[in-house]
Amino acid sequence: MTASENKAIVQQVFDELANGNSAPLLESLTEDFRFVITGTSKWSRSYEGKAVVIAELFAPLRDRIQGRIRTVPVRLIAEGDLVVVEAHGRNVTRNGRTYNNTYCNVLRLEDGKISEWMEYCDTALVDAVLGDPQETTQR
Amino acid sequence: MSAADNKRLIETIFAKIAAGDRAAFIDSLADDVTMRVTGQNSWSQTFRGKDALLRDLYGYLGTLLAEGRRTVPQRLIADGDQVVVEAVGEMRTKAGVPYNNDYCLIYRLRDGKIVEIREYLDSALCERVLGPYPAARTQIAG
Predict the structure, then answer these.
(1) A58-88 pLDDT, tens per residue?
(2) What is the pTM of this model?
């Protein structure tokens, strides 16, 4: 796959995430997919394997966000097997707090599938609004 | 300049910074460069112009951090006029507290000069170790 083919795949995935549709993303992940939240926030670590990412990252996140999670792509930059996506979150927590984080995601693709996602975001906002992933939310 | 030329320029700048030479970086900033520290924390400011950037961001950081601060690039990704650098900081405060941040820096270049920088970083660590960006400087940075 060329950089422009990888870019097109990631653009399609994020165009759907912007509308709250995560199905194309989930279909595009390799089984050994790795999601790394960089930095020192309570959510920062490497989540290894598609099943672990879904259970330990996406599920607690979905538990905190009202309705569908929306991530709107702003700019894509691609070279070789890497695609960088600058994006804005457009979300509200179940407690009614606005959660509009700013993301720079560096995605690695293998044969048209996403195998790695390095996320850089405003970690102070993560801790302030999302709290600890281990804790259940107050509804 | 091609994406490969831009990548080579940024690689050279980082190699020099790692060797303690910041002159090449400063020389490559366009006079009208803007730098945006993304997010919604106290450091999330847009610094407009080379003088303001050097004074209000790098100058202020120089008052907090010990000499010999390094930013070590991990991966570079170039596409058109943009070069993305994932990097790890190796720094200490003047009081000796380690400050090793994770950065994703995006440079936009024009004719071999940096015209825009967008920075993503671990703001939780930044605020915890360096403290909030002073409100008085916020007026200047705008």
Answers:
(1) 999 999 999 999 999 999 999 999 999 999 9
(2) 0.95
**Quick one: which of A98, A116, A92, A93 has its CA closest to A37?**
A116
Tell me the shortest Cα–Cα distance from A100 to chain B, in angstroms.
9
Distance from CA of A39 to the nearest CA of B (A): 5
Q: Which residue has the tokens 């990412």?
A: A53
**Among A residues 11-70, those touching chain B with beta carbons less than 8 Å apart:** 38-41, 44
Task: State which CATH number among 3.10.450.50, 3.30.200.20, 3.40.630.30, 3.30.1360.20 fits the domain covering B3-133.
Answer: 3.10.450.50
Q: How far apart are CA B90 and CA B70, in angstroms?
A: 5
* List of domains in chain A: 3-129 (3.10.450.50)
| Residue showing tokens 């690695």 | A108
pLDDT of residue A138: 47
